[in-house]
Design goal:
With 313 residues, the protein is α/β, with parallel strands linked by helices. 49% of the residues lie in helices and 14% in strands. Helix 4 packs antiparallel against helix 7, helix 7 packs antiparallel against helix 10 and helix 10 packs antiparallel against helix 11.
Length: 313
């Protein structure tokens, strides 16, 4: 069974979309979305520097666009996705791409919603100087308890030994000096705020109002939520979870447990892949993984997908 996943903020790098523009229709699609959301995705995906694409209001639409662009190269229609994929999920902002792949929203609707999400979270992040940092090593329960003592939030629980802390810059500085037992390093992340914490409360109201403009459809295949790793039965529930998720921790560890319980045998991480495939490689032994970064890997991804279909048949 194939799981298709979309990466979250921080996966973007300068120029990462450049090779994708050579594919038929790719630049045209990006320019259509750029006009739709009033953001030059071609510029930011090919020419902008690291600081420019770190901006939350830019990074989030750029990541959803890249995930959808690469997904539609692999599986052009909703029928193709439904036939080949056993489950979809996205990490944080990647959930906007996942709901489109599940058929809850159209690609255009997902782009409109992520534009609102990015702006709202950027505004919320500007209220207080906050940030995020990854803890490398350590044990999950020990690290979570330590973070809570420091007033930090375990904003991303990404696996058995990978947690991302979020809070004020002062709290993160204290963490760097006082690491949890077993943690080798505390690595600051290139994000603009403490996402998935109480610091994002202002963004929740904005996003809730924006979702009222859409009529969601029920997922056409299992959509796994960041909130608790559960599959979501209705489109309305999927959108409600997307709204609340901006101020609540991402439980990617629970998502991976669900992939395993569903019988996952392969996982493809959409562009710009790397992080989620790496987590799966470590925590989902026996599951084949592919991190899609460039169009050169499309044939390999297609072969992996075809192999899963053959095995299922």
């Amino acid at each position: 069974m194939l799981v298709l996943v979309a990466p979250g903020q921080g996966a973007q790098t300068p120029g990462f979309l450049t090779p994708w523009l050579d594919l038929p229709g790719a630049e045209e699609k990006l320019r259509q979305w750029s006009a739709l959301i009033d953001l030059d995705l071609v510029h930011y995906g090919t020419e902008a520097d690291e600081e420019q694409i770190r901006d939350t209001a830019v990074a989030q639409p750029l990541l959803v666009a890249s995930a959808l662009l690469s997904a539609r190269q692999l599986l052009p229609s909703q029928g193709d996705v439904t036939a080949a994929v056993g489950a979809v999920a996205g990490h944080s902002v990647g959930e906007l791409a996942a709901v489109a792949l599940a058929g809850v929203l159209s690609d255009d609707e997902a782009m409109l919603l992520v534009r609102t999400r990015g702006r709202a979270m950027a505004e919320a992040a500007a209220v207080t100087e906050t940030g995020m940092a990854a803890l490398l090593g350590g044990e999950r329960d020990t690290s979570v308890a330590h973070l809570e003592r420091l007033g930090l939030t375990p904003a991303n629980v990404n696996g058995k030994t990978q947690i991302v802390a979020a809070g004020t810059l002062e709290q993160l500085a204290a963490l760097a000096e006082d690491k949890p037992e077993g943690v080798r390093r505390v690595v600051p992340l290139k994000v603009a705020g403490a996402f998935h914490t109480r610091h994002m409360a202002l963004a929740v109201d904005t996003l809730a109002a924006a979702t009222k403009e859409f009529t969601p459809r029920d997922p056409a295949l299992p959509y796994v939520s960041n909130r608790d790793g559960q599959t979501v039965p209705t489109g309305g529930d999927a959108l409600a979870r997307l709204v609340g998720q901006v101020a609540n921790p991402v439980r990617w560890d629970l998502c991976m447990e669900t992939f395993q319980s569903l019988g996952a045998t392969a996982l493809v991480e959409l562009c710009p892949g790397g992080t989620l495939a790496g987590l799966a490689k470590r925590d989902l032994p026996g599951v084949k993984t592919l991190a899609l970064k460039t169009p050169d890997q499309l044939d390999e991804a297609r072969a992996l997908i075809a192999g899963q279909s053959t095995a299922a048949g």
